[in-house]
Amino acid sequence: MDVPQPHKMTDDQKAMYTGICMSRNTEVTLRWSRSQMFIAINAVGFSFLATQIGKPGIQPYYLILGVAGLSLGFFWLAINLKTQQWIDHWQSCLKTVEPPDKDLLVFRVFSGKSWESINSFPTFHLLLNVLPIAFTGLWIVTLSIPYYEGWIESLSNLFKGGAQ
Amino acid sequence: MKSYERMSPTTLFNAIFFCVAGVFILIVPIPSALKGEASLWPWPGILSFFAGFVALGASAFFFGAYRIEKRLEKEREENEAHSFTKK
Question: pTM (2 decimals)?
Answer without folding.
Answer: 0.84
